[in-house]
Amino acid sequence: MSPYLLLPRAALLPRAALLTAACALTLACGGDDDEEEVQDTRPPPRLELRRLVPAGANAWRPGDACVEVGGDAAGSLAVEVAIVGGELRAPGACGARTHCGHWALSLTADGFEASAVSSGVSHTLSLADAPTGVEITLRVTLQNDLGVPLLAEGEPISDEATLRLEAPGGC
Question: Do the Cβ atoms of 85 and 43 come closer than 8 Å?
Answer without folding.
Answer: yes
